[in-house]
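Record passed on underneath.
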Amino acid sequence: MEWTKDAEAAVRNVPFFVRKKVRRRIEQQAKAAGKQTVTLAEVRAAQQRFLAGMEKEVKGFRVETCFGAGGCPNRILDSGPLVEQIEKVLAEAGLLAFLRTTVSGPLKFHHEFRVALADCPNACSQPQIKDVGIIAACRPVKTSEPCTGCGACADACQENAIVLEDGQLAGIRNDLCVACGKCIEACDSGTLRQGKTGYRIQVGGKLGRHPRLATELPGLYDHHQVVRALESLLKSYKKRSRGGRRLGEILDRRQIEDLAAELRKA
């Protein structure tokens, strides 16, 4: 189906990750109306229908995961069971009812509490810009096995976190390491092995008028600690958020540090 220049320009304002779906729906609606060309009027009509129906689709929270995680070669952990537990916690939190009592006017998608899980540090589900981001991670550990000096670990590391001295593995820069585990896979000598495996937790990311990247809690956390962290964050969110304010707008660095300390004691 043909599109006018004005219609093409308008649909380019739609976020790229849903643009194809929006274009397809607009074309279907234009065909149903017996039209052969999509004009700006069809785009604006679709926009009005979307805005009018948005509140009916708001459910209070969103959980996003990696697309096609089962076939991803970078996958560190299977987060399926964790996703189920997180969805249960969010459903039991009554977030839709909470938003209806604290937000004036119609609810929109940006009011929803957002959680994203990524099965590796490539983070396709964009956890850095969600209220709570959870990233699977695996820390490499240097063993006593002699290094052969092949350099495969350094070649595999995209973060320049591998420290070599005279061609031998001397250590790992934890300030640069994102715990992807690729250096472990590359090491044939056993000089590097899998250390602690778990999840990184990031808090308070958002887009919108005042975007911010999430703040990461120090350390790695197991399945139960992740759930406990989410429950604690939801409690703070419901206590302090009014008018649709996002988690990153109501938590300060001290509160995030206190949460990390609480989790370490658990």
In short: The longest strand covers residues 192-203.
